[in-house]
Amino acid sequence: MTNDLRLEDAVNETCPWSGDPIAADSLTIYKEQVVGFCNTGCRDKFEKATTAFELALSAKQD
Questions:
Q1: pLDDT by position in tens, the chain (length 62)
Q2: Smallest Cα–Cα separation from 6: which of 41, 34, 38?
Q3: In terms of pTM, does the model score above 0.85?
Q4: What whole-number distance in Å separates Cα of residue 39 and Cα of residue 54?
């Protein structure tokens, strides 16, 4: 999934968690945009957090 994502497509240049430069192996899609992180740990932390928030918002709307 993330193998075809490119650094130049990322909406950010620095990791929102650490402030370090983003890495090509640490990109993800969020709201149809490429978002970059400095490492896969930061990327995975972001994905877990956003998934939890999306589920909570969805449950609240039901």
A1: 446 999 999 999 999 999 999 999 999 999 999 999 999 999 999 999 999 999 999 998 87
A2: 34
A3: no
A4: 23
